[in-house]
Design brief:
Order of helices and strands: EHEHEHEEHEEEHEEEHHEHHH
CATH architecture of the largest domain: Alpha-Beta Complex
Shape: globular
Helix content: 40-55%
Distance between the termini: 34 Å
Number of domains: 2
Number of helices: 10
CATH topology of the largest domain: Spore Coat Polysaccharide Biosynthesis Protein SpsA, Chain A
Mean pLDDT: 95
CATH class of the largest domain: Alpha Beta
Structural class: alpha/beta
């Protein structure tokens, strides 16, 4: 059995994927046995071919290229990648990530020494070298209504300051989905990613379930990487809408119907007012008015083209 299987999703951003692969080979110790599963989420033909040509050219047996005929989202793509992996640990990393040191070895060594380290991430930095928060607080009703600063002010132990550069491992509620390492046994014991979620909030959902079996989220600051934040996902009103659909699903799943209705009404009022000033938000408001249902997710708008 390998030490680690690294799963990377590609979606029309092969240039980032190639650089990510190169940074893994450059910084990962030869003492660590690992493979890389590249899952393409139905990119355009040009992007797929570029990535395919690169993988064939380097001809590295560590890499497996899996091509979907449909976009199954973040969690779905990762579930496809890891089900073909026989490894003790899984790493799920965004393709717009560049390792700055031997992140995987550093994190796995920490996890071996600390049983409660259930899911861990390295310290993230922007491309200009500025700190990018790795720890965060659950997507909860309190966070949505009052914001992160309020939570950190009332209970800094439970809600640690995200913008501090910690020197020692620090527990949070979840680590960023851009780079997560988890023990395979723990991952499968809680059911892996919830593939009802197409995009966003997958890490909150996974970390809540892991915490229930006393496997907690930790930042490992000795490990460091650059994240080209948002490069792998376009910014448009459909993506913003998907964010809210996933949020409402996670709140209903973990906090119950009453809290779901509370946050739904809060968002309906918020985006009704926003849509008056910015008409592009009418699309989002209409989805929220219907309840922010999973049936309105981008997941149900995919078509298969072989």
């Amino acid at each position: 059995m390998l030490d680690l299987s690294i799963v990377i999703i590609n979606y029309n951003t092969s240039n980032y994927t190639i650089k990510c692969i190169e940074s893994i080979f450059e910084h990962t110790s030869n003492q660590l046995t690992y493979n890389i599963k590249i899952v393409d989420n139905h990119s355009n033909e040009e992007d797929v071919n570029k990535l395919d040509d690169y993988i064939k050219k380097i001809n590295n047996p560590k890499i497996t290229f899996l091509k979907n005929h449909i976009n199954v989202g973040f969690g779905g793509g990762n579930m496809i990648g890891c089900q073909f992996s026989d490894a003790t640990y899984y790493a799920f990393i965004n393709n717009d990530s560049l390792l700055l040191n031997d992140c995987f070895t550093i994190i796995i060594n920490q996890m071996k020494q600390n049983e409660e380290f259930g899911i861990c991430g390295p310290q993230s930095y922007k491309e200009d070298g500025k700190l990018l928060p790795t720890l965060d607080h659950y997507s909860s009703p309190l966070k949505e209504l009052f914001g992160r600063y309020f939570l950190e002010s009332i209970n800094s132990q439970k809600y640690p300051n995200r913008k501090i550069e910690y020197k020692e491992p620090k527990r949070g509620q979840f680590v960023s989905g851009s780079f997560m390492v988890v023990k395979a046994e723990d991952f499968w014991s809680v059911g892996g990613f919830d593939t009802n979620i197409f995009l966003y909030h997958e890490e909150t959902d996974l970390c809540i379930r892991l915490a229930k079996i006393k496997k907690y989220a930790f930042l490992i600051p000795e490990a460091k990487f650059i994240h080209f934040h948002g490069a792998s996902t376009p910014k448009n009103i459909e993506i913003k809408t998907e964010l809210k659909i996933s949020l409402l699903y996670v709140i209903r799943k973990h906090y119950g119907y009453i809290n779901y209705k509370l946050i739904l009404v809060f968002l309906q009022i918020k985006y009704f007012i926003k849509s008056i000033r910015k008409p592009k938000y009418w699309y989002l408001f209409k989805i929220l008015f219907r309840g922010g249902r999973l049936t309105d997710s981008m997941k149900h708008k995919q078509t298969i083209n072989k």
